TrEMBL record:
This is Uncharacterized protein. It comes from the Bacteria.
Length: 164
């Protein structure tokens, strides 16, 4: 699997994404908020950088899929990755069962892991078209926090494959 399903991860997007990940890792939420504000404005807003939002989100999501494969290995023939989220109520929900505005990051990553680039592009395009800045921010922060957690997770040098 190769990163950048849309071929849009330009150098500025990679730089901004890296900077945002560093802010999350440093827990500098005031600076993160200041950096996110212009990125998450509705498309068409005078403060908005909508193309950069999509590029940054694409870079982070594809980096997430790459890290999953690097940590866990690729899915074997006939197998697939599963993503479940525990709700605040303690319920476990699959990524496909989340409302359309939520879970776009998980569905995008799962699509990339399944080598379904069209589905990943559709999820990322929907996130980019989202008009609510709060939803756009939540989507980007979800991806940033997940990538930071994956990068910080202690794992063995080699993927730990499940028993057969």
């Amino acid at each position: 699997m190769a990163s950048d399903p849309g071929g849009r991860a330009y150098p500025e997007a990679r730089f901004v994404a890296g900077h945002l990940i560093a802010l999350v890792a440093d827990r500098d939420y005031a600076a993160l908020s200041a950096e996110l504000s212009p990125l998450v404005q509705s498309p068409g807003s005078s403060l908005s950088r909508p193309a950069l939002y999509g590029d940054v989100l694409t870079w982070i999501v594809t980096a997430l899929a790459d890290v999953v494969v690097a940590r866990l290995g690729a899915a074997a023939d006939g197998e697939s990755f599963v993503l479940e989220v525990r709700t605040t109520a303690g319920r476990t929900v699959g990524a496909g069962d989340l409302p359309p505005g939520q879970g776009r990051v998980g569905r995008s990553v799962l699509a990339l892991l399944a080598d379904d680039r069209a589905a990943a592009r559709a999820q990322l395009a929907a996130a980019e078209r989202e008009s609510d800045p709060a939803v756009r921010a939540t989507t980007l922060v979800e991806a940033l926090v997940w990538l930071n957690a994956m990068l910080d997770a202690e794992t063995s040098t080699f993927p730990d494959l499940p028993p057969r």
